[in-house]
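Example record

The entry below shows one chain as it appears in the dataset: sequence first, then structure tokens.
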Amino acid sequence: MAEIGSETVLRMADDASVQHVGDGAVVLLARSGQLYTCNDTTEAFLGKVDGAHSLDQIIDLLSDEFEVDKATLDRDMAELAAELVAEGILADPGL
């Protein structure tokens, strides 16, 4: 798996879809049929993943929504992005 840096452009995996429900969202991986529930932070993050914005740009957009210092947001979102790539929800940026 490729390392995710601040300039890494993120996109959803081809078989992943996000459905907004209530106070969060669910992600369906069509090929495996796996379903993941997301909290509001993950939902906001995935809502900004479009294949055009880098991780740093997404973090800047999120910093307008959440009252948290940038260093914490940088660390937390980098970890989240890595987890989502590992789960197959985000496309591996090395591919």
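Notes for this example: The chain has one domain: 16-87. Strands lie at 16-21, 24-29, 34-38.
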